[in-house]
From TrEMBL:
One protein family per Pfam: Esterase
Name used for this protein in its record: Esterase
Gene Ontology MF annotations: hydrolase activity, acting on ester bonds
Keyword Hydrolase tagged: yes
Record keywords, A-Z: Hydrolase
Similarity field: Belongs to the esterase D family.
Length: 258
């Protein structure tokens, strides 16, 4: 076989394995004063049906995380619209505060949350057949944002998944006050689900500050919200930062198969 023939076979093979994982979309945000790029993955039967679908908002939504999410949702047979939100300034968007542990020049989580509420969610509901049943998922820093969003705007999403989520000790006063204020209005959390996962051998949490904060948070949730709210905190001791099974376990939990 000649080099030219081999080259053509390789090219044909490469073309054969190209997979379309979603459609590119974008929205200009007046709140953030920038364009935000999205990749939207639609259920397999979306074009041939008139059904409405739940929506999963994927933070840190690059192509790799989207592909992994597609695999998991299909394995769980979850027909769901996935909205992967690509980052522009991750520290700014995910952090609601700056502390010595994690310094951020312009923490802007409040603005990013407003972007989700006032611009992105209405855009998705208008352009795609959403049934308004929404899940948000974040990992590590974006997992912290999921916790912030849950406490600040629990009505925005039905389900919250934070993989390697929580906060360090010097962030605890901020989040404790946020939780105390949020739980004064308990009806906002009726029917909501929150799944949080962390590793017990996480190199980013060597003193287990995040884990201890989540244990205290779990006690507060049980005391304040009780049976009116579904919450699960899971730890893994054989995976490092962002335990690999944690998204599968989280999505399975919030979809109802507890």
């Amino acid at each position: 076989m000649s080099i030219l023939e081999l080259s053509k076979k390789r090219e044909a093979f490469t073309q054969d394995i190209h997979i379309k994982i979603g459609v590119k979309d974008s929205i200009y945000s007046e709140i953030l004063n920038e364009n935000r790029n999205l990749i939207v993955s639609l259920p397999k039967d979306y074009q041939s049906s008139n059904k409405l679908y739940p929506t999963l908002f994927l933070l840190d939504g690059n192509e790799t995380s989207l592909l992994n999410t597609i695999v998991i949702t299909r394995y769980l047979r979850a027909d769901i619209i996935i909205v992967a939100i690509l980052n522009t300034d991750r520290d700014r968007d995910m952090m609601p505060l700056s502390t010595p542990t994690y310094k951020v020049d312009n923490p802007g989580a409040a603005h990013f949350l407003s972007f989700l509420e006032k611009e992105l969610i209405p855009h998705i509901d208008k352009e795609y057949r959403s049934n308004r049943q929404r899940t948000i998922r974040g990992t590590s820093l974006s997992g912290l944002f999921v916790m912030y969003a849950f406490l600040e705007r629990p009505e925005l999403f039905q389900n919250y998944i934070g993989n390697s989520a929580g906060w360090y000790a010097d962030m605890d006063p901020f989040f404790s006050d946020l939780a105390d204020n949020a739980f004064k209005n308990k009806e906002r959390f009726l029917g909501k689900k929150l799944f949080v996962a962390n590793s017990l051998v996480d190199s980013y949490d060597p003193n287990k500050e995040v884990h201890l904060a989540m244990l205290e948070f779990a006690e507060k949730v049980e005391l304040e919200l009780g049976a009116n709210f579904s919450f699960k905190y899971v730890t893994y001791d054989n995976y490092g930062h962002v335990p690999y099974p944690s998204f599968y376990d989280g999505l399975k939990y919030v979809l109802g198969d507890n």
